[in-house]
Write a structure and sequence with these properties.
The structure is a single chain. This protein starts with a strand and ends with a helix. The protein contains five helices and three strands; from the N terminus they run ββααβααα. It is α+β, with helices and mostly antiparallel strands. It has one domain: GIY-YIG endonuclease (3-Layer(aba) Sandwich). A three-stranded antiparallel beta sheet has the order 2-1-3, sandwiched between helices.
């Protein structure tokens, strides 16, 4: 089953949340509707600004751990490289 690492934000240059899942559409729905207790619900982090897909969940987990160790500036550079306007990619990714 394909897996994804994703970055959510509250707004441009706002709070960042990095997660991993095997069902991105379901996970985004949960974030947007406040169904997940914790950081994303507390800080209103619902806008998808970056996503990477992997064939194996193990690879996605490794990438998630790598990104979580990155400096904030590196994460922002990653987002702006592929999404300079910080647009919500939910519709694009799920089509």
């Amino acid at each position: 089953m394909p897996a994804a690492v994703y970055i959510l934000t509250s707004n441009r240059n706002g709070m960042l949340y990095i997660g991993v899942t095997t069902n991105l559409s379901r996970r985004l729905y949960e974030h947007r509707n406040g169904l997940i207790e914790g950081f994303s619900k507390t800080y209103g982090v619902t806008r998808l600004v970056h996503a990477e897909t992997f064939d194996r969940i193990e690879d996605a987990i490794l990438r998630e751990k790598q990104l979580k160790k990155w400096r904030r500036s590196w994460k922002i550079d990653l987002i702006e490289k592929s999404n300079p306007e910080w647009q919500d990619l939910t519709e694009t990714v799920l089509l």
